[in-house]
Amino acid sequence: MQALMLLLWTGALLGHSSSQDRAGSPQEDSPAPDTTGVPVEEEDPFFKVPVNKLAAAISNFGYDLYRVRSGLSPAANVLLSPLSVATALSALSLGAEQRTESTIHRALYYDLISNPDIHGTYKELLASVTVPEKNFKSASRIIFERKLRIKSSFVAPLEKSYGTRPRILTGNPRLDLQEVNNWVQAQMKGKIARSTQEIPSGVSILLLGVAYFKGQWVTKFDSRKTSLQDFHLDEERTVTVPMMSDPKAILRYGLDSDLNCKIAQLPLTGRMSIIFFLPLKVTQNLTMIEESLTSEFIHDIDRELKTIQAVLTIPKLKLSYEGEVTKSLQEMKLQSLFDSPDFSKITGKPIKLTQVEHRSGFEWNEDGAGTTPSPGLQPARLTFPLDYHLNQPFIFVLRDTDTGALLFIGKILDPRGI
Question: 277 near 395, Cβ under 8 Å?
Fold first, then answer.
């Protein structure tokens, strides 16, 4: 009965296509003519806005990156801010000749959108998602080998659209690490720890993407209700973690029978939200949910969830990640960037991508803007009590409401840390 009452969409609306199927990606403004006599579905007006369409494209890149990263570490937490990595790649494409540029643009799904000013629109997107009230910081940098002569015709558009200048290594590992750490600290306002990993020798091009987010709920949690509770790592093992509770939480909810998961969305200040995917049974195998994730699927969820009142428990979370996503990108049809790319718009010397680093920090606690839900949120009347307990492995997606951009994505198998 519960499933019937809260099953809020059909399989057709969800469009459960494989992550390898690009039919679910943002399409051209004009739908292709249909020769079968079946009416062609109109594109959602949301995706006709250039900045939203670009956000959907690079978010689809982000879901691809997440899937590969998760597949490489199936038994570990995953924390990614794919936007910072996408930004570094998009900026690098400014220096690529046609063949290499096409490789990057296809990975970022730019080939499926018609936008003569991708980089100008990217500037607009970055400005939108990093306004102070969103509590989200993201920055990217391109670092080149020592003594490289860079063309000014590359630096000028890089600075114009992405607000960054390339860095050339000195060749002194200690000084180079210090400079990178200082840059990260300045960009992230000291919220991300300094790295102790030396810049490796033999770097030709190093891409660095960093991001930080501290969520502030629209309705804060009562810290007096936070207590140590069990989190089920799997069917046999549990750990005890601080869990925040709200016996009368107002959230948006739906049950997906195809994915066998309960979906909930909690609003954050700054027109942001977090969408949680919680399997009906305790499992660390979240592949079915992961395979369904696309910008369009998340957008459909955002439109279809219903506002309800529920008993909510959620672990306090403070996670960080520092490491490479080089191997993940190599598995995403970007291997040629590491072998024999053409970056002759950057320099006359043959250079290639060597390493892609990602550093991120993410946290939420009881903090919120108010003690009562927004007046406009009227929950649906339910004839039964509903619980939503994030006390087992789950996936979360941090989404910007205005643009639809994917800002963070996490697979939480153990909330105690990465």
Answer: yes
Q: Does residue 359 belong to any structural domain of this protein?
A: yes
Q: Report whether pLDDT(7) > 50.
A: no
* Best CA proximity match to 306, nearest among 354, 353, 254, 348: 254
Domain match, 223 and 354 both: no
Do 251 and 398 sit in the same domain of this protein? yes
**Domain count of the fold of the chain:** 2
Per-residue tokens: 68: 């590969």
Q: What is the pLDDT of residue 144?
A: 98
12 plus 145 within the same structural domain: no
Q: Is the pLDDT score of 36 beyond 90?
A: no
**What's the average model confidence in pLDDT over 318-323?**
94
CATH of the domain at 332: 3.30.497.10
Residue 45 lies in a domain: no
CB 221 within 8 Å of CB 385: no
Q: Read off the CATH number of the domain in which 290 is found.
A: 2.30.39.10
Q: pLDDT by residue (tens digit) across 95-130?
A: 999 999 999 999 999 999 988 899 999 999 999 999
pTM: 0.89
pLDDT, tens digit, 9 for 90 and up, residues 197-233: 888 889 999 999 999 999 999 999 999 999 999 999 9
Residue where the block lists tokens 């096409």: 102
DSSP 136-171: EEEEEEEEE-TT----HHHHHHHHHHH----EE--S
Structural domain boundaries enclosing 101: 50-215+319-363
Q: What are the tokens at 186? A: 């300045």
Identity (one letter) of the amino acid at 65? L
Query: Does the pLDDT at position 74 exceed 60?
Result: yes
Task: Looking at mean pLDDT, say which of 2-11, 155-164, 369-378 comes out highest.
Answer: 155-164
**Residues 375, 291 share a domain:** yes
Query: How far, in Å, CA of 159 to CA of 175, rounded?
Result: 24
Cα R_g (the chain), whole angstroms: 22
